[in-house]
Amino acid sequence: MAPQSYSILILLFLQAPGIFVHGQTTDPFDRSNPVSAQTQYGPIEGFIHAASDGTSSNVFLGVPYAKPPIGDLRFERPLPPDSWSSTLQAKQFRNACIPYRYANINANVPISEDCLYVNVIAPSEPSDDPSGYPVLVYIHGGGFWYGNVIRAGFDKATKVFASRGLITITMPYRVGLYGKIFYQRL
């Protein structure tokens, strides 16, 4: 991924006021308790997730970090996403990127070329540190051939990382034909 894309990712979430709010749900996978944030591209609405261990996190799923790499952008470097004015619903994972071999995927995971979306799992409570929480970026394995971040989910990130005061960002990347060509050109 180009260094510029990392700065876009960091600006998108670390500069987002309102990412920390109070609230709690009773069902650990209930997405009905909303939480909002303003990003540099527009407003997003996720949900507050209460894990079975009592840890609560703010979850934003499927937030674009680049324009969809389709059509003329298919084999090009990622470009910043277009801004939006209405609130983007960020409560569901987006499609996984198309793998090199379809045998390497889980049949329950939808795939698409339009797959450049991040997921953010953040502690629900504001940080005591004026500089905020540290950020962990998870980029799945698979050697540019296969893999996705959907398998990582958000419940485990809440229990393991949000409970320890870490913001977790899971980030897919183009794999297979679309990724191999892209990364050879960097």
UniProtKB/TrEMBL annotation:
Keyword check for Signal: yes
PROSITE patterns: CARBOXYLESTERASE_B_2 (PS00941)
Keywords for the protein's UniProt record, in alphabetical order: Hydrolase, Serine esterase, Signal
PANTHER family per record: ACETYLCHOLINESTERASE (PTHR43918), CARBOXYLIC ESTER HYDROLASE (PTHR43918:SF4)
All residue ranges annotated as the Carboxylesterase type B domain in the record: 36-179
UniProt protein name: Carboxylesterase type B domain-containing protein
Pfam family, one: COesterase
Hydrolase as UniProt keyword: yes
Signal peptide: 1-23
Family classification: Belongs to the type-B carboxylesterase/lipase family.
Gene Ontology MF: a single term: carboxylic ester hydrolase activity
Highest taxon listed in the record's lineage: Eukaryota
SUPFAM superfamilies xref list: alpha/beta-Hydrolases
Gene3D superfamilies on file: alpha/beta hydrolase (3.40.50.1820)
